[in-house]
Amino acid sequence: MTTPEQYIENNRSRFLDELFTLLRQPSISTRNEGVQECAELLSGMMKQVGIETRIMETARHPVVYGEILKEGAPTVLVYGHYDVQPPEPFEAWHSPPFEPTIRDGRIYCRGSSDNKSQLFSYVKAVEAFRETVGEVPVSIKFLYEGEEEIGSPNLAPFIKEHGNLLKADLAFFSDSHIHESGRPLLILGLKGMVYVDLKVQCAADDTHSMRATAIPNPAWRLVWALSTLKDKDSRILIPGFYDDVRELTDLEKQAVAEIPCDEEELRRYFGVKEFLPGRSSKAFYFNLVSEPTCNIAGFNAGFTGEGSKTVLPARAAAKMDIRLVPDQKPEDILDKLRRHLNARGFNDIEVISHHFLEPSRTPIDHPAVAIIKDSLRDVYGLEPIVFPNIGGSGPNYVFTKILGVPCFVVPHAGHDQANHAPNESMILEGYYRGIQTAVKTFEKLAAQP
Questions:
Q1: Helices (H), 56-215
Q2: Which domains does the chain have, with CATH numbers?
C-alpha cells in the first residue's frame, strides 16, 4: 500500500502546480487587493481534499476556517495567513512578483515563503493521508487569516468569539525560516510589540532657517526626547521598563547555548563591526531571545530630498517599535513611555499607538517538543534547533493566552528568504519538507498514549 510519504513523492509536480495557482492570486491586505478572491480560492482548494471549509467574516478581511475531525484523537489547530505584503518596488524584482518562478532550487514569488507555501503544506498533508490510509490520524482545525501583514487586528476578537469552535490540544503553524546552517527549527515563542508614532509640532508652517534663533525646531525637540530612551550601552531608560521581564529558565538557557552561531560570519553578513550589548551578554542569539528592544524605525522632518534647502520645519515625526518578552504587557509599556516623556518635559510630543502584540512562550519541557523534534529529525536528517522564542513578533499569544493551548512554530523557508522585500523566495524542497513534517508529526501525536 502506498504510504503518505510515497504519495507526496509521486505527486510533487501536481502539488507544485497547485501551489503556483495559489501564489498567482494577489492578496495584499493593507490595500485590500485580491484578499476576498484569495480566501475563496484557498477555501475551494481545501474542500477539494476533503476538509470541511467555510469563509468567516471579520471586521475587515475574512478567516478561512476548515476542519477534519477524528473522534478520540488529539486536536491540532493549524494557523497560517494567506495575506501578503505589497510587492513594490517592482523594478527590484528579477521576475514578476505574482508569477512564481523557479531559479536555483527556489520558488520566487510574493507570498512564497510568507506564508502561502508553508500554510498550503498542511492542506497537502491532509490529502496524502486521505488518499493512502483513508483518514487523518488526528483532528485538525484550520485557521487561515487574511490580516497578519497588518498586525492581525481582528484575530484576537475572532478567537474570543469562536473559542468553542477552536478548542484544541495544541496550535501548530509554519512561518519564518530555518537556521542559516540549514538545520530545522522549532520555535516556542514570539516577542510582543508596541508600535507607535511620536509627533511634535512647534510652528504653524515651515519657515526660513535664519529664524532658528527664535523659532523652536521640532526635529531637535524629537531628537532630545528620543535620546532619553536609551543610553550609550543600549540599556533602555524608561523607568520600570524591565520590571516584568521573565528571565530564561535553565533549560531555555541551555537551548540557546546550543544554537550554532558564527558571530564573525554574522557580523560580515550584516555589515557591522560588533553587536550591541544586552543587560548581561553580547552573545547574538542570547540577546535575540531574551532582550526586549526600543527601536527607532524611521524619522521625518523638514527637507530630505537631494540638494539643499535652508528650512526650519514646523513638524517632526518618528516611528518606533518596542519588542517585548514575557511577561511584559503592551499597555503597561505604552503607559510607561508616555509617563517618561512627560516627566522629562516632553508632554507636547504626541504618542500614537498603532497596534499591540503580546509576547508568548511555550514551556520548553512540553511533551510535544520531543515529538516535533523527532519528526524534523526524520525529515531533514539533521538535529533540530530549539528556540525558546525568536526576535520577531506575531499573534502566538492568541493561542497561548486566549485559547490556553501551547503553540509550536515549525518553519521551512530559507534564512535568506527576503520576505517583505523584493525577490521573496521559498526553498523548493522546503515546501515538500513541510508536507512531510506535518505527516510525521500528526502520526507521532496520534500514537501517543
A1: 117-130, 155-161
A2: 4-190+359-447 (3.40.630.10), 192-245+292-357 (3.30.70.360)
